[in-house]
Amino acid sequence: MATNNIVVLGAGVSGLTTAYLLSQDPANKVTVLAKHMPGDYDIEYASPWAGANYMPMGKAGSNHEAWERATWPALKAITEKYPEAGIHFRKAFIYNRKKDPQEDIAAFFTDLVEPNPWYKDVVPDFKPIPSDQLGPDMDNAQEFTSVCINPPVYLAWLVGQSVKNGAVFKRANLKHITDAANAHHTGKKADVVINCTGLSSKFLGGVLDEKMYPARGQVVVVRNDPGPMMAVSKTDDAPDEALYIMTRAVGGGTILGGSYQKNNWDATPDLSLANRIMARAIEIAPNLVEKGQGVKGLDIIRHGVGLRPLREGGPRIEKEKINGVSVVHNYGHGGFGYQASFGCADTAVSLVKEVLQEKSRAKL
């Protein structure tokens, strides 16, 4: 049987999901190269800082919608079949305030808070919340069953599944993407390199994507458990601040968020912002703490800062030749890397197959 030597560059959720899917074909010999691996906490490595959950953000009819549609069945199946993967089902409540005009809502919440969203036919148990059950400041709200992910556990699970399928993981800090082609674990040159380096694609030789920029996300991780996940269209504190709450599976703590600060590279938690995040969370979910305790009632695990890898014009999932090396890109997913992971990885894998078919025809 002919084999395909494939290198996946990057071990965030995009790289690991792509490697996981590719490793399911015995013909593919997959090497994953990465500067950062699951277990690392570095500002360059966005995936461990994520919530992470499934709260669809894609605009109806867009590629983004298609990727999120394709991802839900995969996350649902993993949640049901593999409890060790660190994902659990969770009720979600989405609130849209009257005072937040649609065009002013933070980009990652715009379609999420639509009163009649496309994802109503995707997620289980979707239903609008009757207006008589909403406060006077809310325009509309909905609830549905979603999932919440414990990223350190889930990323490690993806590594384990890929290794079980024969993938090999290696640490590497490459200056140029073509160097990856010569780092396959067999010693042979890779047939194709998949670039899943996220924000690092801005600095990686051969890519140097100037369209990449960060959106700084700050969260507070606490031991308190409010029950369901929640998100609100906007806050009154600042246009680049947000309000969302989610409890990770298997003891991962509850994430209180957050912020969406574009072009902000600061890795240090802002304690003033942290206090606003905690106060907003308690206001929307009073059962986080005992009555009257306020912010002091929160049992803080840590403060976290991650940089969402945003890209002007949206994610880059395409193929190209760089100095004779066949490359498939899969990066620039901003704040929706997990909830679009399988859809985006499926698209990347299809492009890998095209590259391999082209190489096969060239040999005939």
UniProtKB/TrEMBL annotation:
Report the principal subcellular site: other
Which residues does the annotation say bind D-dopa?
A: G335
Q: Cellular location of this protein?
A: Peroxisome matrix
The record's section on SUPFAM superfamilies has: FAD-linked reductases, C-terminal domain (SSF54373), Nucleotide-binding domain (SSF51971)
UniProt keywords (A-Z) are: FAD, Flavoprotein, Oxidoreductase, Peroxisome
Q: Which Pfam families match?
A: DAO
What top-tier enzyme class does this entry carry? oxidoreductase
All copies of domain FAD dependent oxidoreductase, residue ranges: 6-349
Q: Which reaction does it catalyse?
A: a D-alpha-amino acid + O2 + H2O = a 2-oxocarboxylate + H2O2 + NH4(+)
What GO molecular function annotations does the UniProt record carry, in alphabetical order?
Answer: D-amino-acid oxidase activity; FAD binding
Q: Which InterPro entries match?
A: D-amino_acid_oxidase_CS, DAO, FAD-dep_OxRdtase
- Which domain of life does the UniProt lineage start with? Eukaryota
Q: Where does FAD bind?
A: T197
GO cellular component term of the entry, any = peroxisomal matrix
Give the EC number(s) listed in the UniProt record: 1.4.3.3
What family does the database annotate? Answer: Belongs to the DAMOX/DASOX family.
What is this protein called in UniProt? D-amino-acid oxidase
Q: Which organism is it from?
A: Penicillium antarcticum
